[in-house]
Amino acid sequence: MATSGVSGVNSISSIYSFNNFRSKNPNLLLGGRKVLLFNWRRRRSLWVSNVASDQKHKTKDFSSDEGFTLDVFQPDSTSVLSSIKYHAEFTPSFSPEKFELPKAYYATAESVCDTLIINWNATYDYYEKMNVKQAYYLSMEFLQGRALLNAIGNLGLTGPYADALTKLGYSLEDVARQEPDAALGNGGLGRLASCFLDSMATLNYPAWGYGLRYRYGLFKQLITKDGQEEVSENWLEMGNPWEIVRNDISYPVKFYGEVIEGADGKKEWDGGEDITAVAYDVPIPGYKTKTTINLRLWSTKLAAEAFDLRAFNNGDHAKAYDAQKKAEKICYILYPGDESLEGKTLRLKQQYTLCSASLQDIIVRFERRSGNTVNWDEFPEKVAVQMNDTHPTLCIPELLRILIDVKGLRWKQAWEITQRTVAYTNHTVLPEALEKWSFTLLGELLPRHVEIIKMIDEELLHTIVAEYGTEDLDLLQQKLNQMRILDNVEIPSSVLESLIKSEEGKEQAVEQKEEEGKDDSKDEETEAVKAETTEEEEETEVKKVEVEDAQAKIKRIFGTAPNGQQMVRMANLCVVSGHAVNGVAEIHSEIVKKEVFNEFYELWPEKFQNKTNGVTPRRWLSFCNPELSEIITKWTGSDDWLVNTEKLAELRKFADNEELQSEWRKAKRSNKMKIVSLIKEKTGYMVSPDAMFDVQIKRIHEYKRQLLNIFGIVYRYKKMKEMSPEERKEKFVPRVCIFGGKAFATYVQAKRIVKFITDVGATVNHDPEISDLLKVVFVPDYNVSVAEVLIPGSELSQHISTSGMEASGTSNMKFAMNGCLLIGTLDGANVEIREEVGEDNFFLFGAQAHEIASLRKERAEGKFVPDPRFEEVKTYVRTGVFGPYNYEELIGSLEGNEGYGRADYFLVGKDFPDYIECQDKVDEAYRDQKKWTKMSILNTAGSSKFSSDRTIHQYARDIWRIEPVELP
């Protein structure tokens, strides 16, 4: 850290003379963000613009038919230094007396934003001028990570900023560490969204992200003697230099109220609770391109006129603040606990706020670009909306509501437009993760939307009846139960009447056939004539009974369960309403088609696609692992691999080269030393860089099987304790086993797993007999910045979920890209990674997806016999060797043959023997460092297909149907 004597920068009064700086740098940004000087082709202009936030902005009339060229000043270290000094004085976020690290960070970030804003405004000015089709990516999470190094790396300004900060007495790395991670996500879903934004910008696709601006995010994780403790995240405490509040961009969002139908049949939703969503914009720069796209985050507040001033002045402050608190708390927490009705309501409010504000904004932009004449049929030709999982599902009824109730379109036209506009990415096969919401709650909160969802459900039911017919009512009932959007809700009258009419027709056909089979004699004709009147009367009575019988039969078969819950299936709503449904790995997409949405796949096979996830190689290799990146660039001949990861495959031909292997090991060692420092800082533990670094970092969940990992460690520890010191060193490769990840605050079993891992670590790490042969470390508060340290220095990474349950995983791609070997099951993207890196370079174990159902059935029938080694571990834990905490509930979840929370649903016991035997193979491979290094190189070379650039190209081509638009 700089002291008062370093470069004279601790005193702001000595920073510099701005007038002198301005006279020497006439083309540089002046006044921070206020005035931007740059050259247009054929003219020089002074331009002050707020394009990204101007709802009423009209397309500029550019003087040249050739378009325009942005002649952006490329700063050197001298001009960067002056810019940082300027912001330290004239864009203050801190007191003026000192220039310490936090202030240095903010001044540096403000300086970088100046360059970003030039590109940002130009990008959207050009999109307005060209009126291009634009993709909008809606996600409840964007796990951005730190922005500074990523931004200057993408802008190609790492050198100038490093040099400038050195002259100010600081290193770029120390300044960058002052930035808190943006707490806008939790796990892979949010990180994927952020990788996608990076690739959209880099590839020059006209795209935009929409999310929520969470004040506290998920939570900050502390590890105490009691396990995980959650405290509020404070990432916004000192402000966020990367965001710009757009006070002129705000939209009303309503809840509750009633639906009013006018004399003309037009419906209007009169909300009972009104809030305002305000836009905060974050620039997302592309790599070595002028394109800078936007992430628009919504924050919620109460409109000033809605504040109850009378109640406040009367002393009823609680009443006056009530509406304000209700509005603001919507954007307090990511995924608030939903065990209570209040929690469920808040989550729904969050989801609807995201959808409503975003859709209103999208439509305003479409109307503005359309000019005086708006052709709504062209909406899908200009707008693509991608729903990242089911959280943004309410954008479907919201778009329909706006088109029908506000814009005056008829149902058929609005429905066709919606289906052509929205698409859905599925991220899970877990039943509990396929969102369902209470029909009653949704109806109370969003009464008009429930009416629209019922209309969609009715359309679907008619489609299903037409597809499967009414001959086999039991089959039809089964299809309706599986495919309906509304679960256990009465069938619409139009469908019910159709089924009753069909059933009556079948009965009449049977009667007619019977009548035709009768052999009426002439003698009987006379008697029939005499009895004609009586028969007609009887026939009338029979028909009446037949109608009643048909109704009773249909209602019996298609009726609702009296005590069953009425739910809205959000995933089904997405599938029905969207024109495309994609999984995120080949195996996941097949499970989606064959199991999760099989009935829909049979009905609409053309909707279903696969889009294997990818990660950005800029953040996840170049910026977080510069040592290895330099080696890759040297051996592949250029840095083209940063935008064309297919070039990584060229490393294969050098995999046996001793010089490359030596450089590779040196880079890995350097990164391991960074992990040593991180572990010391975060936990106090000292670990040896000579040990293998074995890492599992991801959200804590039973299906991800951190429990399998720690049970394997316990088995390893027990065997070590049973051996002499010489035997231990002969048998076991030294390991540092590293965990990281958050357990959701109300997920009790996951929190027990965290507690167990930390208890094992506390025992093992203080055992003098074991010393450096085994260490167990849980790194608290895992986030993107922690991952950027752990991934480059890891040597073995664990992706050991129960097969068929992980949609994709993207951390597996990041690890492989950084030359880390993987141990895992054939699950998610592991399948494709193993194919690319080579079977010999992936440590495979465990049951496969097609076996899981039969294995669970075998367990339920009491036929499963656990391996003695697994039983040995459980017995050992029960001895209390890892402390006094009662782990009976945790261990009990792995026992028994049936019951909630029991019977080892995730097959830890089944896969345990295969897992520990596979770990023996890992030890054997690691002893041969030449072989291990070759495997590491081949993992990086095999990562060529796992760039998010490749994934985005596929989305753009197959789903969004948009083209790149590069600024001239």
UniProtKB/TrEMBL annotation:
Modified residues (N6-(pyridoxal phosphate)lysine): 814
Similarity comment: Belongs to the glycogen phosphorylase family.
Cofactor: pyridoxal 5'-phosphate
Subcellular location: Plastid, Amyloplast; Plastid, Chloroplast
Region (Disordered): 502-544
Catalysed conversion reaction: [(1->4)-alpha-D-glucosyl](n) + phosphate = [(1->4)-alpha-D-glucosyl](n-1) + alpha-D-glucose 1-phosphate
Function: Phosphorylase is an important allosteric enzyme in carbohydrate metabolism. Enzymes from different sources differ in their regulatory mechanisms and in their natural substrates. However, all known phosphorylases share catalytic and structural properties. Allosteric enzyme that catalyzes the rate-limiting step in glycogen catabolism, the phosphorolytic cleavage of glycogen to produce glucose-1-phosphate, and plays a central role in maintaining cellular and organismal glucose homeostasis.
Main subcellular location: plastid
Name this protein carries in UniProt: Alpha-1,4 glucan phosphorylase
Organism: Anisodus acutangulus
One Gene Ontology molecular-function label: pyridoxal phosphate binding
BP-aspect Gene Ontology terms: glycogen catabolic process
